[in-house]
Amino acid sequence: MSLEELTTKLTAYFNADDYDSCSKILPLIKIELIKNNLLIPSLTTKKNPNDLIITRSILEIGALVSINLLNLKDFSNYITQLKTFYDLVNILPESQNKNKLLSLYLLLLLTQGDLALFHIELERFNNFGLSVDELERDEFLSIPIKFEKWIIDGSFNKVYELLSSKHNFPCKEFNLFEKDLLDSIRLTIATNIESGYPSLPLENLKLLLFLKNLSDVNYYIDQMNWTVENGIIYFNNNLNDLDDEIKDEKLIVKNSLGYAKEMESII
């Protein structure tokens, strides 16, 4: 089957949301792209720009297929390949999917707690001539940027509220990160609590971690190997020296506790 025939099939499957069929045909298409020396372009490429645009579109479909199938490793690989195409700003017209896909990648980095790489990726937009204000106004990029600021500030409740309110995100794929992003935030909060406090009432922990019922709390306690006695959770820590870092962590927890009543109405 020719590259043109394979691409036509891929597009039909993708438009029908048949991601499983897409995932089966994509490896065959990538082999054809390699044969035609289209998979890895360069700034000095002599290839027909139309061929490169088609290749870029195929890779974008691959990225969206991967994220919808929750295959995060493949999604990251597709993003890496797409960056070489997005860097061809003097050769190719800008893709309408670029900001959407890179925003999804930024969300993935947030779920993984990789804030360093998150900022490196944001810096790449300088190559596209976008200012910070323009990034924050973009319907796609504004979301991970907003989430990252809230996480850095310890305003985890704002992230939770936006995710749990069934916010109308600009694309459905943003919703796929809800669970992983909340899990990442819960782990950050739990680590700060464990480092900064010897114990905490169980009900407070429930509110702090945005958990809906006590069974969820008990499951989390088991995962963290904490101890519960008479409604009080005891953490496995040593608070002999309360340095500045622990004070900062306690401030984050204190700020979160300030939202407890507000969270109670949500949960």
Give the gist of this structure.
Residues 70-251 form the PCI domain. With 267 residues, the protein is mainly alpha-helical.
Explain what this protein looks like in three dimensions.
This protein has 267 residues and is mainly alpha-helical. Among the domains are: 1-94, Serine Threonine Protein Phosphatase 5, Tetratricopeptide repeat (Alpha Horseshoe), CATH 1.25.40.990; 180-267, Serine Threonine Protein Phosphatase 5, Tetratricopeptide repeat, CATH 1.25.40. The protein is 65% helix and 3% strand. The chain has a three-stranded antiparallel β-sheet with strand order 1-3-2. α1 runs antiparallel to α2 and α2 runs antiparallel to α3. Residues 238-252 and 259-267 have low confidence and may be disordered.
List the topology elements.
Blueprint lengths: L2 H13 L3 H17 L13 H20 L3 H15 L11 H14 L3 H9 L8 H6 L4 H12 L2 H9 L13 H19 L2 E3 H7 L5 H11 L2 E3 L2 E3 L9 H14 L2 H7 L1
Antiparallel strand pairs: 1-3, 2-3
Helix pairs in contact: 1-2, 2-3, 3-4, 4-5, 5-8, 5-10, 9-10, 10-13
Family: Belongs to the proteasome subunit S14 family.
Protein name: PCI domain-containing protein
GO biological process, one term: proteasome-mediated ubiquitin-dependent protein catabolic process
